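ok so for the tutorial part 2 we go from a plain amino acid sequence to predicted structure tokens. step 1 is just haveing the sequence, like this:
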Amino acid sequence: MKFDFKKIINDNLPPPDQAPWRQFPTYNFVGGHNDPDSLPIELLTHACTSVLQREGKTLATYSLESGPQGYLALREFLVKKLKRTAEIDCTSDDILINSGSLQSIDLINQALVKAGDTVIVEESNYGGVLSRLNRLGVTMESVRVDHEGMITTELADKLAKLKQRGIKPAYIYSIPTVHNPTGTIMSVQRRQHLINLATEYDTVIFEDECYADLVWSGERPPSLYAMDTTSRVVHVGSFSKTIAPALRVGYTVANWSLMGQLLALKTDAGSGALEQMLLAEYCTEHFDQHVNNLNINLKQKLDTLCQSIDREFGTDATYESPPGGIFLWVKLPAAVNTESLAAFAEAEGVAINPGHEWSLQADATQHLRICFANPSTETIEAGIAKLAAICHREFGVPVHGKNQPR
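step 2 — the prediction. this is what the tokens look like for a chain of 406 residues:
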């Protein structure tokens, strides 16, 4: 008889997977996958060969002879890139390379929060953050998001009420530039208000900027890190959404009073070296042009998705077309429970993210998050048509089924 580990597995863990992974569903609208046709395979191959021929012997050492903060050439690229795109003034000593932004989040949480602490998050939010904070036993206080990002007047009210109760948040978590899942971009005025409030209440801002390069116009506001004059912002970014998620390379920008502690906590002997070498070699010459081409392709897919939703769901689906990113945040009528819809759809090869996984909103079960980056435009059209047919069959929404007059 096989030993049953279930009887000794720790409590307060995420639900276990029920079966080994086999393959993607036919219509895959979940996760943060990116556009496969935008991957510059030939240039990446050339970059990998070039850097290995030049510096391959450094693979014989931990950290590529660059120290525990990561490959120096990649950090030096980031110093210039962050200055150019986000107005961040930093040095390579202010940057830590991580195994994706999720490791950044885990390290920052280890350093800054403990069970029973309070953090402030945006009401609709990255599911990976919400689940981690839940497992840590942290109390989450939420603030709504609108078309200008976090509503900082609500944040001010929240902070004042917490202070009256003797509570100082461990940090304020925000995705200001291309928010996940809503896609909004926080205005400069609200950014400044957020910084002023964090200073007034002496708390930290945790700025997650993983999607900040995916802006259709190519223009974005300065980062919170750049606008802050008190060094209370910790900034996290990633190459997952600009180059490739499977490379698992993210980074943290912070002053040394936090950086030194993060280094003490990062006990993995260094993130993947070959990925760092490849990215530094490729991005130094090609990053800007690649991102420009990627954004053109992503915007075309978003347009196809919006047209498909309008055609198949009509006014029964509401959304705001985002100014960038890879997600569309859709609201359906109260008759639809998107958790149940996701289960029905999964059985027929359509994968969607139900809203409750990405939000603390009371009506989150009416929302769904659709990732449009990975499927082709043809797959998007067919998948949304199939989703609408399933939704109509199970919930009577849209009111008129496919091919019936509206």
